[in-house]
Amino acid sequence: MSLNTTKKTPHRIGFVSLGCPKATVDSEHILTQLRAEGYEISPSYDGADLVVVNTCGFIDAAVEESLDAIGEALDENGKVIVTGCLGAKGDIVKQAHPNVLAVTGPHATDEVMRAIHEQLPAEHDPFLDLVPPQGIRLTPRHYAYLKISEGCNHHCTFCIIPDLRGKLVSRPVNDVLLEAERLAASGVKELLVVSQDTSAYGIDVKYKTEFYNGTPVKTRMTELCEALSQFGIWVRLHYVYPYPHVNEIIPLMAEGKILPYLDIPFQHASPKILKAMKRPASTENTMQRIKQWREICPDITIRSTFIAGFPGETEEDFQQLLDFLDEAQLDRVGCFAYSDVDGAKANELEGAVAEEVKQERVARFMEKQAGISAQKLKQNIGKTRDVIIDAIDTTENMIIARTSSDAPDIDGLVYIEMSDSHNCQVGDITQVTITATDEYDMWARFTRQ
Ligand code: SF4
Known about the structure:
The protein has 449 residues and is α/β, with parallel strands linked by helices. It has twelve helices and 20 strands. The strands form six sheets. The chain has a five-stranded parallel beta sheet with strand order 2-1-3-4-5, sandwiched between helices. It has a five-stranded mixed barrel with strand order 16-17-18-20-19. The chain has a three-stranded parallel beta sheet with strand order 6-9-12. The termini are far apart.
């Protein structure tokens, strides 16, 4: 008997990943599956046998960017499979680009793999097709997104995510913890917990109890946070809605089990607008809650996003929002001008706000918040903070880092001048003394130890 040792050249797949962290996680799942099945990933269009484009379809600008990316992949390569949120929006992709090979919605690894198999059947070689246990990730080695659920049960009138991604489906908590364990073992120092609605985790499975390493754990946000704290790495929560049980996780932040950071999209402060938006937990007394959280955990960083110029927003409503900013003194804030999203209920509401008024309100909002943020950051001068090193720029002699108050990509940075006495690596967590600040970023030197 003779063994045929001739290895065929594996098929090569190009990959373009657009959109939010949830889409990034979808891309990582597809890439992991591709490598598991023996496909190679091509860094260029011309080296690829076909290209997968993972799209975003949330706002018009994202639709435009996704359609452009598909067009570019078709021009450069010719064989393109489209997945992601834009794929779930009817015929938009096929109308703009009739030559794409297949179109799927988001969170559709199996469908994408089926489409790839049809074009390029896998050539599996169990000796050579290795996937690292933590899967393939698109983020730097030292942090990773951990997606705990898919979809959403709410009906915010400006949002079409429930149509695109369906109702809430929570991942079993033991699966989430196993993934976190693998990520921590692979050198990840910071987990960014993401979903559409993190505080709703487990509602769909009635907070089912699963077993992780023989220990019972409920599929529920508090229990998940408690369990994630055992890995001894930073755990940061995103997309938390102000349900009453959010109060349970604040003590975990105060005890240092998870980062004292709450990304909680309030969207507005006028009860009338919140009602028109159909926001979850819109009747909660937000100011009161923020005060309580700060009493329990004085170091908490509260990040939020807002929409200015929602249909029906009067100058009085907007002023209410500015007054809220003054009173709430939030730490990190983003603001977007409302824009119609194809298929969203808010498009039918009366009282559309003129584009120039929207832009003017966003500018006023950001100016107010810049003042608040500058004041808050200034209070750090002279203080020692833990930072995680994101990058080392040897040409500028500068180290770029973040404090626990700053999430990657959306919040501020800490710039540290390189010093010979401190050898650090990307992903290290170290102490610095803050020396200067502006509206959003800080400057620091290493704290002598
Ligand atoms: S909570 Fe509202 S904004 Fe968030 S995904 Fe669900 S419907 Fe969209």
